[in-house]
Amino acid sequence: MKKYIIISFIISLLICSIKADLYAKSMLSQTDPENNPQLTMAGVSYDNQMRVAKFWARSQMENYKSPEELKAQDAREIRKGQVYSKLMQGNPKIKAVALTFDDGPHPAYTPKILAILKKYNIKATFFVIGKMVEQYPDLIKAEDTAGNLIGNHTYHHVNLNHVPLDEIALEWQACNDAVKTIIHKDMRYCRPPGGDYDVDVITAAMDSNLKTVLWTDDPGDYASPGDKVIQDRVLQRIGNGGIILLHDGVQQTLDVLPQIITSLQNRGFKFQTVEEMDKNLNGSPKSLKIKKHRKTNK
Ligand SMILES: [Zn+2]
Fold it and tell me: Which secondary-structure segment (H or E) carries 61?
């Protein structure tokens, strides 16, 4: 049994490496300076460009942490005395939930999500990607004008655990700048792609006055498992203070959103932005400054 686990682990590593290799090659052939600013360095050898492109490809692969994994990581941090400025769940005594939409804005989906939220008179939180924000500023304006909260989901949508130390802060800052140019507000909340974070990711966020928001409920909508599956996963597990991870850009999410909202409203849940939820928490975790642990850049 152990042998099979080791073999499947090696195979998945190989597949991941081949995928990164192919992706890196395709990125190099595109040499699109908009999407791959790191590839525009003049005078860099092909090998070195390939190395950077591979790193970039790996850092853009998003593997979502389950709510259980996030809770286990939180428990480990508490044992080590690391208490971060982060929001994992709202007040369990208040019958409210937060809908969060990651990875937008998206020209085909964001307006439809906004129309549904308006119809049911509720507000949500959008964790947006900086480079998408720059392409669709009107959608950010529309999200903000309707009273929704806009949160930071990095500029390039990278796995921050794989990004060099000095670039983590840049990822948070560049996304903040993109949004601030449009709505003239600093963001206060952020979400690392995939829920992947370490000491450096959270301390860089805290240095930029961002509180990290994770989730309690992940129906896996990004994999398009089917309308009914998404709906059941949300409705069967949800509780007070639930933070629901959804995505801007998934048709099934759009299809099932009205049913999710009406079912939760019928059960007496109120909808809050993560900021409203955070304000309802009495004595939220104290922010401690923790020494950065990455000695050198990867
Ligand atoms: Zn994401």
Answer: none
Give, in words, the CATH class of 67-279.
Answer: alpha beta
Ligand 1 centroid from CA 197, angstroms: 13
Torsion of CA 18, 20, 21, 23, to 10 degrees: 120
Q: Are strands 96-104 and 242-247 parallel, antiparallel or unpaired?
A: parallel
Tens digits of residue pLDDT in 78-91: 888 877 778 999 99
**What global pTM score does this model have?**
0.78
Look at residues 160, 154, 190, 199 and name the one whose alpha carbon lies nearest to residue 172: 154
pLDDT at residue 63 in the model: 75
Q: Which listed residue (74, 102, 200, 248) is catalytic?
A: 102
pLDDT, tens digit (0-9, with 9 covering 90-100), for 32-55: 444 444 434 344 456 666 666 665
Contacts of 231 (CB under 8 A, 6+ apart): 219, 256, 259, 260, 263
Name the DSSP class of 66. Answer: P
Ligand 1 center to 152 CA (angstroms): 10
Instruction: For the chain, give every domain's residue range.
Output: 2-59, 67-279
Q: Which of 103, 217, 247, 248 is catalytic?
A: 247
Q: Does the annotation mark 102 as catalytic?
A: yes
